[in-house]
Design a protein that fits this description.
This protein is of the alpha/beta class and 293 residues long. It has eight helices and seven strands.
Length: 293
């Protein structure tokens, strides 16, 4: 593999196999381990003194962002499900290895009061809040709309959309000029897969939420942006997709492979830092070449 050639920088679909994990999936149980940037991400002080809250920070994109933020100088709070405790401990270890504070906040963000407590504890224990990353998400592949239960639809919307709304609302009184909110949308907002109808719907909602909130908060000096990943190799994939989809995950991109969490993190760092001071209400696509409007 070449570090310069993006098509071969990481393994292709042939290395992923057909492994299946129980939802929500743990990084430590994956045969092909994702790259979170442990050996590659180098910080340069872009976020020195900042305090960040990242949902879904135990693994996947959230862990890579937590690691990158810490190496850029930020203290980091991560939220995650109780069942993801083992992965969360590893994320905290990586943050602390960068000589930054790590705050572990287990619980279910489908509960509004828990979302409020996440913000309260972050502010109390880290001394404030400058960056909110709404990243946690739930998906589960189904054959058609008739197979999507009300319970599943509710779980998708509450995890992906309601929690973003609750957290952003709770965070706002603590944000000031220069603060940022970064939401994780998806290529699914533009190119919805039929088997992910409810998930794709939620990701389109996140995109418009980002655009509208950015306009509301711009006069306050608070920026709101989004990152739209394409296929990224995280525990969510083998835990929510059928084996044949896992086997070919990322193969349909022009680069011919799935992305890695470490390849997503720089986009979040850019949007969190003053490098993007004139950018709000936008999204950065990281799709392996899949076109978006």
């Amino acid at each position: 593999m070449s570090d310069q050639d993006p098509t071969s920088r990481y393994p292709g679909p042939e290395a992923q196999g057909k492994e299946q994990l129980e939802h929500p999936g743990l990084s430590r149980e994956m045969d092909l381990q994702p790259d979170y940037g442990e050996s590659s991400y180098k910080g340069s002080g872009k976020l020195t003194g900042k305090r960040a809250l990242i949902t879904g920070g135990d693994s996947g994109i959230g862990r890579a962002v937590a690691l990158a933020f810490a190496r850029e100088g930020a203290d980091v709070a991560i939220s995650y499900l109780d069942s993801e405790e083992a992965d969360a401990r590893e994320t905290c270890r990586l943050v602390e290895e960068a000589d930054r504070r790590a705050l572990a906040l287990p619980g279910d963000i489908r509960d509004e009061s828990h979302c409020s407590k996440l913000v309260e504890r972050t502010v109390s224990e880290l001394g404030g809040l400058d960056i909110l990353v709404n990243n946690a998400a739930y998906q589960m592949s189904q054959g058609g709309i008739e197979e999507i239960s009300t319970e599943q639809f509710d779980q998708v919307m509450k995890t992906n959309v309601y929690a973003m709304f609750w957290l952003s609302k709770a965070a706002l009184p603590h944000l000031s000029e220069g603060s940022v909110i970064i939401n994780t949308t998806s290529i699914q907002a533009y190119q919805p897969s039929p088997e992910l109808l409810d998930y794709a719907t939620s990701k389109a909602a996140i995109l418009n939420f980002t655009k509208a909130l950015a306009q509301q908060l711009a006069p306050k000096g608070i920026r709101v942006n989004a990152v739209a990943p394409g296929p990224v190799w995280t525990p969510l994939i083998p835990a929510t997709l059928p084996a044949e989809k896992v086997d070919q995950f990322g193969a349909d991109t022009p680069l011919g492979r799935a992305g890695q969490p470490a390849e997503m993190a720089p986009a979040y760092v850019f949007l969190a830092s003053s490098d993007s001071s004139y950018i709000t209400g936008e999204r950065i696509g990281a799709t392996g070449g899949k076109p978006m409007p």
